[in-house]
Amino acid sequence: MISINDIFNESYYLEIHQEVAQLVAKGDLASGLEHFKAVGIDEGLPFTPLIDLNHYKGFANPTLSRLTNREALTHLLEVGIEEGLIFSPLIDLDFYKEANPDLANLSNADALIHLRDVGLDEGLQFSPFIDLEDYRVLPSLSLSQVFTHLATSCMSESLLLVLAPPLSRVQKKLKLETRPELRAGGGRRNTNLSSQTLELSRREKENFSVLASQ
């Protein structure tokens, strides 16, 4: 089972929560993680760009909507990640492992850590609808920095960005079989993907593009 210590991003938390960073700098708090465990989780403060807790207990898994933030985080860590429940509008771990066959035997928890530590900066495909190169406005930015900016933009505006309805396992298998370029180079980015995968129909945009968080 993955723990909060495994996925909490200290530098990210302090960067987007400046008041906490000031308390840590003054020595009033030992770390951002201390603040998150005591207060931040109950306030729903983002703690990693990889996970959107509002999305997890809202649009993606409406049966969890009555959970508190603390309960939702516990459920995610103990059950949700390994069961393949969606916890981000940007990441699909099933697709990540299917598009990168050398990761097929990883648990979902290990796949998430691999994505964070290796996959993002190597440009491995983690969603059939997102190509981080499309969002890299400055060549000096790493792809993990691009992802952080994209994810933070979604969460900071209190919106749930859904680029397309979730694919079923059969649909994802068909996409991988009919689009072999997704497997090329171990799932690395293919520049031919972006225009097609990001162009949704008018109805899809109306139904799935932007939903106000509840």
Describe the structure.
This protein has 214 residues and is mainly alpha-helical. The chain has a domain at 89-212. The chain has helices at 4-7, 10-16, 18-26, 32-43, 53-56, 69-83, 93-99, 108-122, 143-156, 169-178, 184-187, 194-197, 202-208; strands at residues 159-161, 210-212. Strands 1-2 form a two-stranded antiparallel sheet. Helix 2 packs across helix 3, helix 7 crosses helix 8 (108-122) and helix 7 (93-99) packs parallel to helix 10 (169-178). The longest helix is centred in the middle third of the chain and has 15 residues, at 69-83. It is globular and about 45 Å long. The protein starts with a helix and ends with a strand. Residues 158-176 and 181-214 have low confidence and may be disordered.
Which features would summarize this protein structure in a list?
214 residues, mainly alpha, 13 helices
Chain-wise SSE layout:
Elements: H1 4-7, H2 10-16, H3 18-26, H4 32-43, H5 53-56, H6 69-83, H7 93-99, H8 108-122, H9 143-156, E1 159-161, H10 169-178, H11 184-187, H12 194-197, H13 202-208, E2 210-212
Antiparallel strand pairs: 1-2
Helix pairs in contact: 2-3, 7-8, 7-10
